Amino acid sequence: MEPIRVILADDHTLLRQGLRKILELDPQFQVLDEAGDGQGAINLARRVKPDVILMDIHMPGVDGVEATRVVKRERPQTGIIILTAHEEEDQIITLIEAGVDGYLLKDVSPETLYGAIVTVARGGSVLNPAIVQKALGKGRFGPNGAGHPADELTEREKEVLRLIAQGATNATIAGALFISEKTVKNHITNIFRKLQVKDRTQAALYAIKHRLVKL
């Protein structure tokens, strides 16, 4: 199996070096390169085409939010996990709207980080429940600040949405519901359209807000 190709983007050199050492302990990861700011991350994403980027929010010049927007616009298949030192619930919705696939605090264990990278590389999403709940408590959700009623979804679509919110990949959802991956993709397309969201992470937020899944 090919290793998961990772880029590290953080303006603190020691932190990048520490992350590199942690990831290099596990052969399932390959650290391709490092960037000290958002523009560097964008340039590396264009050049080496990583599977996952571990990104800080606060960096000089182009920050993590804008870098996420650009990378996701140019290469949506690249997963982006935000690693931050502090809970910044004011930023989480903005990041999700930018297309981020995961949001973790920098004090997570190596095992949690490994699992998050694998999940995102496989097309899943990773959210910190405490931060998400605080962000939702501020009353903002989705591109227009409001969600659609849950009853617009069919029961099967709700089942798929619950699994998305748990970070499940299409293959995992297909196995759990005994349907094909093509059918899963069709359900996800319908879910995105009905909820007016653009990615799995926004859909997961909807599920959390409307208590369709327990975290």
TrEMBL record:
Name of this protein: Stage 0 sporulation protein A homolog
Cited Gene3D superfamilies: 3.40.50.2300
Species name: Heliomicrobium undosum
Residue stretches making up the Response regulatory domain: 5-121
GO terms of biological process kind: phosphorelay signal transduction system; regulation of DNA-templated transcription
Domain HTH luxR-type, first and last residues per copy: 146-211
InterPro entries linked to this entry: CheY-like_superfamily, NreC/VraR/RcsB-like_REC, Sig_transdc_resp-reg_C-effctor, Sig_transdc_resp-reg_receiver, Tscrpt_reg_LuxR_C, WalR-like
Highest taxon of source: Bacteria
Record-listed 4-aspartylphosphate modification sites: D56
Keyword annotations: DNA-binding, Phosphoprotein, Transcription, Transcription regulation
CDD domains: LuxR_C_like, REC_NarL-like
Pfam families: GerE (PF00196), Response_reg (PF00072)
Its job: May play the central regulatory role in sporulation. It may be an element of the effector pathway responsible for the activation of sporulation genes in response to nutritional stress. Spo0A may act in concert with spo0H (a sigma factor) to control the expression of some genes that are critical to the sporulation process.
Recorded coiled-coil stretches: none
DNA-binding found in the keyword field: yes
Entry's Gene Ontology molecular function annotations: DNA binding
Entries under SUPFAM superfamilies matching the protein: C-terminal effector domain of the bipartite response regulators, CheY-like
PANTHER family per UniProt: TWO-COMPONENT RESPONSE REGULATOR (PTHR43214)
